[in-house]
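User: Hey, quick favor. My workstation is busy. Could you predict this chain's structure for me?
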Amino acid sequence: QVQLAEAGGRLVQTGASLRLSCTASGRASKIYDMAWFRRCPGKEREFVSAISASGGRTGYADFVRGRFTITRDNAKNSIYLQMNTLEPEDTALYFCAATEYYSLSSLARAYHFWGQGTQVTVSS
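Assistant: No problem, here it is.
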């Protein structure tokens, strides 16, 4: 089993920056491809960004528009999402996820392990 725990979400103003983190525990023998998803109010969960197990490949949703950066530190079993120039439309519950079988997938069904989420609220 793998457990994922997100942290870093809070209330900020438009234009602010936040860094989210997600730490994996429970099974250290594998390094997984991982991703960030989010659920905005009244909407379905959507893909934000993904990173390969080695960290050598990354992908982003179109709405990111260069504002976010995904990274990982395998020595700490963690991934991060640096978010800059935040907008009210970025308000959402942000989840991290891990997959054993896919690489850089934007589909939620590709991911087998999920955290509980961390809330990001951007006020105008």
